[in-house]
Amino acid sequence: MYIAVVALTMLILPVLSIFIDHGLHPDPPIVLLVGRWFVFWGVGVRLALAGLRQFFQPEFTAKQIFQSSSPDVLPLVRELGVANFSASVVALLSLGMPSFVLPAAISAGIFYGVAGVRHIMGRHRSRNENVAMVSDLLMSAVLLIFVAAYCLR
Of 103, 57, 109, nearest to 80 (Cα)? Predict the structure, then answer.
């Protein structure tokens, strides 16, 4: 289930949305569509789902991602959940407020990049941690390339 949610929100649904949006409205530059839909799905929906799960079921993230069964980490996982959910709200609102796309892409690009690098440094990664590492690094790259392309256009 975890892998399916990651694949849908961080690749399949953004790409599908870009194609549909471009087919319906061919005028906006593709860079804007990439930003809009990767921010909405990959940041908004993905971090909302992660944040809610981290807040209400912190044991999953503690065990599956951080490989910890200590109850001492649960308050930190819950705080991460609140931070993820907060970032997701800005990204979700970006569909109606396009000026939110760039700030959401900048902050999430940094967040995903740092998270991905932190996963690389883990010696014994689980399958879910490998999925998190790869998806975090790819999302960071997409978002930061979008930011650069947007700023250079």
Answer: 57
CA–CA distance, 108 with 91 (Å, rounded to integer): 9
Residue 60 to residues 68, 70, 107, 109, Cα–Cα distance (Å): 10, 12, 25, 24
Q: What are 30-52's pLDDT values in tens digits? A: 999 999 999 999 999 999 999 99
Determine the distance from the C-alpha atom of residue 80 to the mean position of all C-alpha atoms in its chain, rounded to a whole number.
Answer: 13
Residues 142 and 113: their CA atoms lie apart, in Å, by: 10
Segment 89-108, tens digit of pLDDT: 999 999 999 999 999 999 99
Residue with tokens 């970032």: 87
Do the beta carbons of residue 82 and residue 76 sit within 8 Å? no
Taking the model in full, what pTM does it have?
A: 0.92
